[in-house]
Amino acid sequence: MATNRLDEPDILAPFFGGDDEDGSDGSAMTLVEHLEELRWRIIKALAAIVVMSIIAFIFRNYVVWFLTLPLPSKQADIFGGKLIVTGIMEGFTTFLLISVAAGFILALPFVLYQTWAFIAPGLYEKEKKYAVPFIFIGIALFVAGVALGYIVIRFPVEWLITFASSSFTELISAGSYFTFVAFFMLAFGIVFEIPLVLTFLSMVGLVSRKTLQKKRVPAHIGMWIAATFLTPGADPYSPIFLGVAMSFLYELTIIFMRVFAKEPQAEE
């Protein structure tokens, strides 16, 4: 027997601002309106990154000085403490890359706000109240990840430079060094956002806190084993830093889920 499609539940309602009885925004949005809002949110976020990148470009010399501190002292003394460039455009493109990376970090609060503002209309009122904590926690975690990446990076940099020093003279170009540093630190910052991502997935019922608690021991063992392979070099510090950070993030995820996510009623 055919059924009326209007009587069927709208499975996309939580994501496109459908009606609900728990106090969420009752104004429904069409798919075109939803995509239009997404477009403007992305434009605003990109505009903030561009503005902050311009500011970082103005203070590029200070940023470069700060990022070259992890270089070994012997390597920093070559060519008067300056890195080399191998092309006429490499100096400009290197400054541009550094400015964009720094601009993204500086614009992160606004980017996180735009992300939450886009998601919030599909959430209940009791879930929207977590917007401000999520933004501040996300910023704190990202900054902590970038800071840890800055602390740890001196070990892989020193190992990579001295690995073949007995056979080759290492002349580090500005482009290769700052590209490595920028992606290394941004990767740490993004990885530190995993607790918030998993917490949000738990809020929508895709991840369970009990599952993470049951798998706690093998998860920690696996993360520490992975830390020894993910960090280059023979130094004992990099795996320890990364292992502690990964275990901390795992436990922090469980705490966030307990505080922010409502545990679903299990029937099995």
Q: How large is the count of helical segments? A: 13
Order of helices and strands: HHHHHHHHHHHHH
Structure class: mainly alpha
**What would you report as the Rg, rounded to the nearest angstrom?**
23 Å
Mean pLDDT: 76
Gap between N and C termini:
33 Å
The largest pleated sheet is described as: none
**Global geometry:** flat
Strand content: under 5%
Number of strands: 0
Bin the helical content: 55-70%
Q: Runs with pLDDT <50, length 5+?
A: 1-26, 264-268
What does this structure look like?
This protein has helices at 31-58, 60-67, 73-76, 90-106, 108-119, 125-128, 131-152, 154-162, 174-191, 194-203, 209-214, 216-230, 237-260. It is mostly helical. It is flat and about 60 Å long. Helix 1 (31-58) packs antiparallel against helix 5, helix 7 (131-152) packs across helix 9 and helix 10 runs parallel beside helix 13 (237-260). It is built from 13 helices and no strands. 66% of the residues lie in helices and 0% in strands. Residues 1-26 and 264-268 have low confidence and may be disordered. The protein starts with 30 loop residues before the first helix and ends in an 8-residue tail after the last helix.
